[in-house]
């Protein structure tokens, strides 16, 4: 009995509806994964979200797996970085209409990294190498490789790494001191997809796999807890004041409000006891402070004696017929003399410069005289009377292994930032989570001054000792937390990831394969000899 044209059309419609429903479900699965990350940190969802993607990818052909991974990534990034759209409405007349297409385009591009991970997993899973526990290990390896690439390709954008799901869990974030955020993400993804693999697997003769994995997870927790227990360091005798001026982004550069902005920071900085260091956020001063002698003298006269001011300010330098602009942190003594500075080297595309400006007819989101020029890289400042300090401006703090000068290790990190662009969205919370992971990785306290929040003092184990929330005006006065000895990750960076992955493959796969291969070798040798 042949099908009529109407029946075929109906079947196509049903197939289309089912395909769209399937795609929508995968998008939702990706979006739900965002709930495992700060500020939500619902860790219980991780086995369902990552495990769900793992289950769906099993048995798919590489191209179809890539489409599935891209769809998952679309939900993951749409749910995780939708707040970027808020920055377009700071100057809504110029950029408001671009908010949705620009953020949607960014989501679509970033989704290619989960697509790449899914493609590689499906391609390699077709071999016998992926049998048993090798299957979740392979998925975790491909996912981590894609995350690492996302953090390095072009300018890199390592935002919302999978390991950040563990930021709020003190013992579980500590292994980042040894293996970094990428290594911790590898272990995390492996462990959360393992239950799905064990449930879906038809081979129940390997209970040791579950026992070994649970023991591995317990060891991870125990190692982190031990790091928390060992060594209770006394704080230094250096007093620090972090100033959160809470100036709305749309008011920050208005000439008629400039005096109000400067006065607010001066008033907040000069109250109470005398600190050794006063920290202002990124571009706290609305102008070129090194060019305005009167303002420098006014600010330093108002600050307590013996204080060093470290503030975010724009800077410009004549270079032949051109002028170069920099986003900097500059330090001044009580007489208004410059003690040194640092220029941001990881610039925000389309926020601080336009990539490929010769071909792209786009404007920057920020009004200014010209694009910023990147600085030479991480730098340690030696300022009189205080411990060595490393600087990370704004989103530089999101890059694992790229926030500290390898030649001269600092004793603490100053993260000057301006999250006012993103209002009270989840963006500043996610930014804060990245800063906490950098503290653990480097074994260094991170002091964070943010214009509208979140300002915080973070110790070398990632604990928040004090903070000012979003859209609060005030100061934080605290003793500078101590640095810990240089961590394994601080010494070797992302090179710790490779031996970790190889060791896990040997532990979970090699110990199973090697005896079998050995027996085959001796059986073959025996047959040859006889």
From TrEMBL:
One of its GO terms (molecular function) is N-acyltransferase activity. PROSITE patterns: CN_HYDROLASE (PS50263). The chain crosses the membrane at residues 14-34, 40-60, 67-85, 97-125, 137-159, 179-200, 207-224, 495-514. The keyword Acyltransferase applies. SUPFAM superfamilies: Carbon-nitrogen hydrolase. It is a multi-pass membrane protein. Pathway: Protein modification; lipoprotein biosynthesis (N-acyl transfer). Residues 243-482 form the CN hydrolase domain. Gene3D superfamilies: Carbon-nitrogen hydrolase. GO terms for cellular component: plasma membrane. GO terms for biological process: lipoprotein biosynthetic process. Its EC number is 2.3.1.269. Keywords: Acyltransferase, Cell membrane, Lipoprotein, Membrane, Transferase, Transmembrane, Transmembrane helix. InterPro entries: Apolipo_AcylTrfase (IPR004563), C-N_Hydrolase (IPR003010), C-N_Hydrolase_sf (IPR036526), LNT_N (IPR045378). Pfam families: CN_hydrolase (PF00795), LNT_N (PF20154). It comes from the Bacteria. It is found in: Cell membrane. The keyword Transmembrane applies. Belongs to the CN hydrolase family. Apolipoprotein N-acyltransferase subfamily. Catalyzes the phospholipid dependent N-acylation of the N-terminal cysteine of apolipoprotein, the last step in lipoprotein maturation. This is Apolipoprotein N-acyltransferase. It comes from Cognatishimia activa.
